[in-house]
Amino acid sequence: MAGLLISYFRFVELAFPLHLPYGLLNMSQQLYAKLVIEDETISAPKKNKIVGVFSEMDKRLIDGSEEHLAILDLSLRISGILSGVK
After folding, report:
1. Mapping DSSP to helix (H, G, I), strand (E, B) and coil, where does residue 32 land?
2. 42: which residues sit within 8 A by CB, 6+ positions away?
3. Which of 2, 7, 8, 20 can pair with 25 through a Cys bridge, CB separation 3.0 to 4.6 Å?
4. What's the distance, Cα to Cα, between the start and end of the chain in Å?
5. Are 21 and 67 in contact (CB under 8 A)?
6. Of 38, 24, 37, which Cα lies nearest the Cα of 74?
């Protein structure tokens, strides 16, 4: 699973270098790894929702969205998922 994750982020980094700044890409990789791969206290349905949020953020950034707003939205949505707010 970790190898697949690294391959995915490496693909995104190579395919869309202008849309994903290194800082944001690095931060999102670390957050994804910490929440989805390493943290065993988060249930599978919550991890599934978190993966969906990351996917939406990737799409928005590729479409040209503002990076600061995307990371703010990502953080708030993950916080809502982890706290149980729908």
Report:
1. helix
2. 35, 36, 50, 82
3. 20
4. 28
5. yes
6. 24
C-alpha 73/C-alpha 53 separation (Å) is 9
Q: Pull the structure tokens for residue 4.
A: 């697949």
Token pair 């800082």 is at which residue?
Answer: 23
Tell me how far the alpha carbon of residue 4 is from its chain's centroid: 14
Predicted structure pTM score = 0.72
Q: pLDDT tens string for the chain (86 positions)?
A: 545 555 555 555 555 454 455 677 778 888 888 889 888 999 999 999 999 999 998 888 888 888 888 888 998 999 999 988 86
